[in-house]
Specification:
With about 200 residues, the chain is of the alpha+beta class. The chain has two domains: about 5-90, 434 Repressor (Amino-terminal Domain) (Orthogonal Bundle); about 100-200, Jelly Rolls. Helices cover about 30% and strands about 30% of the residues. It has helices at about 5-10, 15-35, 40-45, 50-55, 65-75, 80; strands at about 105, 110-115, 125-130, 135-140, 145-155, 155-160, 165-170, 175, 180-185, 190-200. It has a six-stranded antiparallel beta sheet with strand order 1-2-3-10-5-8, with no helix packed on it.
């Protein structure tokens, strides 16, 4: 989005600044509540201070273009979507490899990165999962009717769904029930890399 459009979206004119700030503050509060996020979590995810976010939500401050962009990115939205300005909304949503907001989990055995926009959650979700040798990603049952689709990009893994299991090698794919306990286990000697899609009914 061009800087001109962003500025037009964030600060229109002095007459309606107060009303615009109130609407924006309420939209941010609504998006935060819908995700079950605290102000502290939004501050951590966006890089905008808690006190600034609190002022914006109360309509006491109008964010700069940079601040609005960071808040929108935390919600996996464009500034245009956050401000309800469709003409400022791009047709492409990009998830950058180094965007920490999309690093769902990271420990010494398993790293999960979300590849799909966060606002698609509970519709369809796409993940990149890296497992060290012997590493396991175990999941409790998701919502009824949920299925997972998995493709092995590198290494060897075992997929478990309930009492059933299957071993997969590079290039293999599998689909399985995810509304029961399920797991992905690295059974190879090296790191395993898989693409994982969750589809909710």
């Amino acid at each position: 989005m061009s800087e001109r459009k962003a500025r037009a979206a964030v600060g229109r004119n002095d007459d309606d600044d107060e009303a615009a700030a109130g609407r924006l503050g309420q939209r941010i509060k609504d998006h935060r509540a819908a995700r079950g996020w605290s102000l502290d979590l939004l501050a951590q995810t966006s890089g905008v201070s808690r006190s600034m976010l609190s002022q914006i939500e109360r309509g006491q401050a109008n964010p700069t273009v940079g601040v609005a962009f960071r808040i929108a990115r935390a919600f996996a939205m464009s500034v245009g979507e956050l401000l309800e300005t469709p003409d400022a909304t791009p047709n492409i949503t990009v998830v950058r490899a180094d965007d920490r907001a999309y690093h769902y989990r990271s420990d010494r055995h398993c790293r999960i990165r979300t590849l799909s926009p966060l606002d698609l959650e509970k519709d369809v979700e796409l993940y990149e999962v890296q497992l060290t040798p012997g590493g396991t990603l175990r999941s409790a049952a998701h919502y009824e009717g949920t299925r997972e689709f998995l493709t092995v990009q590198r290494g060897r893994v075992r997929v478990e769904s309930g009492a059933d299991s299957a071993d997969l090698g590079e290039g293999d794919s599998a689909t399985y029930r995810a509304d029961i306990a399920h797991a992905i286990v690295n059974v190879g000697k090296g790191e395993a890399l898989v693409l994982l899609v969750d589809i909710y009914r």
